[in-house]
């Protein structure tokens, strides 16, 4: 339960500060997607309902705070959720290898679909080889970071609660 609360708090802080972080370090070269990592953790530890609600609410919050197309990020995070949910049938999300592959593929899929949606609405965004390489680097780095995040959250869940 503690990991669930921490995931919400960290994710809200991340959503509120993501624009400032990206602007200060340049154009999202290694944009770590903590929301997708938390979606995967919640899916495996708290069930599909908690992960689905988390994905939708975080997507809506990002849309509201970024003044973007309302519902676009929510749709993208729901696609992340369903891709991981279906991927769990083939890979074990409890193993580090499964965590890395499923998180990285969900992040990569989310970025590709985002660009394709922008292209469909003629927002003059093109999908080039260099952008695909950046998406892949970002997805792999997010997948690598997912493994220690899962370990930390698992230890927080198992930590004994002190009563006063």
Give me the secondary-structure topology.
Blueprint (H helix, E strand, L loop, with lengths): L1 H24 L8 H13 L1 H19 L5 H16 L8 H25 L8 H30 L6
Helix pairs in contact: 1-2, 1-3, 2-3, 2-4, 3-4, 4-5, 5-6
Q: Can you put this structure into words, describing what you see?
A:
By secondary structure, the protein is an all-alpha fold. It has one domain (32-158). Helices cover 77% and strands 0% of the residues. It contains six helices and no strands. It has helices at residues 2-25, 34-46, 48-66, 72-87, 96-120, 129-158. Helix 3 runs antiparallel to helix 4 (72-87). The longest helix has 30 residues, at 129-158. It is globular. The chain starts with a helix and ends in a 6-residue tail after the last helix.
Number of domains: 1
Biggest β-sheet description: none
Choose one word for the global shape.
globular
Percentage of residues in DSSP E strands? under 5%
Helix content: over 70%
> Which spans of ≥5 residues are poorly predicted at pLDDT below 50?
20-27
- Please tell me how large the radius of gyration is: 16 Å
N-end to C-end Cα span: 19 Å
Mean pLDDT: 85
Number of beta-strand segments? 0
Q: Class by helix and strand content?
A: mainly alpha
The count of helical stretches stands at 6
Quick recap:
The chain is an all-alpha fold. The protein is 77% helix and 0% strand.
From the structure above, extract its key features.
164 residues; mainly alpha; 6 helices; 77% helix
